[in-house]
Amino acid sequence: MPELDLTTDHKALDDDLAARRYFAKFEHITRRLAGVAEAMERDRALSALESDVVEAYVRAIAASFKALSLKYLVSGRIAGIGQRHLTIDLHESGFPIFQEIVTMANDAAQAGKHLAGMPDAARLKDEMVRQILGERVVPTRLQYAMSQRLYYEALAQGGLYFAQMHPEAQFTGEAPSGRRGFLLHWGVYDSQLNVPVLYLMDVEDSGRKALPLDEGRWPQAQAHLLAQSAGGLKLLTVARGFDADFADLHPKRLRRLHLGPMYSSAFTLQTGPIREVLEEARSPAGEDWALAWTVEDLESERVEVEKGWFSTTERQVFRLDPLAGMGAETGATRVTRSLILPQRPFQVLAEKDPEGFRSVRKFVVGREGRVLVYG
Questions:
Q1: Each residue of 105-117: pLDDT tens digit?
Q2: Model confidence pTM above 0.85
């Protein structure tokens, strides 16, 4: 069987003005996502802690986009330089391709070395002024050098979203069982879907030492969770595997949040109602977009005890969606699909009322940042 050519869905933004518009759009979107997380907290779809965790990941995503915007600040103006255009997945993603995120992580690991070998920003500015006044030319190569300087400075500051965001554990209190409760959270950048994916797992810990302080269990748990974070795996598979491999860690709930795709008539290709909505809305700059936000949720229904010769082991039995066998198909208790979009596209969507979007929750963001929830 011939291999699929995934590059047919990729597009290089070879014009610096187009790249700037693209990054400005995502800056606008990421600023609004904190309001969406707060709205989900008000609706009790997220706890206060979970809302804070999600907002922290959103800030990291925003920081990564900011860094990439500096890297490609003069995209397309310089000939003879290697990767000088941002590449995005224009079909069912709208985000930069996975390789962009991997390259950024590699650059971040060597940011200090790059900065040590570069002129500082003040010197570059002085040279640009002299070239403009003395030679009366646009100092394109100096502008490129400045953009790279700013890029590596942003990487050195940290707080970025990478291809893997290693699991962290936050104590949530004593569980009803008397065990310690933890929220485990981590993230990946899906290499096939080209979107950020977050995981939240509620765990009860019956070990003798608290999980984050346990030098034996915690590194193993982190490695296990990252290895099981492939998008093609069902939540049921991930939760059962964790439950089986760690006898004293009991997963009570597991959620997976897909932050994307992003749709925009200016940058992506889409079909069906969403294409018609964005085209008919004719939104002004910064408001021509819609972002899908999907939450898969798996909950433990009960515990079964397996008795051996010398010990007993708890096993979680997870609740699957009983409707039309969808639980077995999705491997989740429920799947909640949402769409985040500005007011004008929402008005067109409400007027057209396509059947496939009636069960989708709509988070409508105003220019002042207020978020209203419909559906």
A1: 999 999 999 999 9
A2: yes
